[in-house]
């Protein structure tokens, strides 16, 4: 899904649109969807990108966490405190701030 489409759907989740090559000038509104101004879409694209960028730590953590199965096995065999220690390594490596 293009950045333009994501922004439009954040503004109007029921919008039916098509966009070619992520180009704001190619937006086609379908099924009676009320058009949204280009300025509003462009502002929302910036907001959506900033939100995505602010959550990089989540994507980085997800790559390094053990699988849920392995985490549950760790809890079963070693207890919650040991599991917390394992998870804390990744949380410390990729902090929220």
Give the low-pLDDT segments.
none
**What oligomeric arrangement do these chains adopt?**
single chain
- Beta-strand segment tally: 2
The CATH class designation of the largest domain is Alpha Beta
The arrangement of helices and strands along the chain is HEEHHH
Overall structural class, as computed from helix and strand content, comes to: mainly alpha
Task: Give the total of domains.
Answer: 2
Q: Beta-strand level of the residues, as a percent range?
A: under 5%
Summarize the structure.
The protein has 97 residues and is mostly helical. The chain has 4 helices and 2 strands; from the N terminus they run H-E-E-H-H-H. It folds into 2 domains: 52 residues, Alpha-Beta Plaits; 38 residues, no CATH class.
Structural notes for this entry:
The two termini are 28 Å apart. Helix content is 63%, strand content 4%. It is elongated. It is mainly alpha-helical and 97 residues long. It contains four helices and two strands, in the order αββααα. The protein has a two-stranded antiparallel sheet.
SSE map:
Elements: H1 3-11, E1 17-18, E2 28-29, H2 38-54, H3 56-64, H4 68-93
Summarize this structure as a short list of keywords or feature phrases:
97 residues, Alpha-Beta Plaits, 2 domains, two-stranded antiparallel ribbon, elongated
């Amino acid at each position: 899904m293009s950045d333009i489409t994501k922004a439009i759907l954040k503004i109007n989740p029921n919008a039916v649109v098509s966009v070619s090559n992520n180009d704001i000038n190619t937006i086609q509104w379908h099924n009676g969807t009320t058009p949204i101004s280009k300025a509003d879409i462009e502002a929302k694209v910036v907001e959506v990108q900033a939100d995505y960028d602010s959550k990089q730590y989540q994507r980085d953590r997800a790559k390094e966490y053990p699988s849920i199965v392995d985490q549950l096995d760790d809890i079963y065999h070693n207890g919650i405190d040991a599991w917390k220690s394992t998870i804390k390594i990744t949380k410390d490596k990729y902090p929220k701030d």
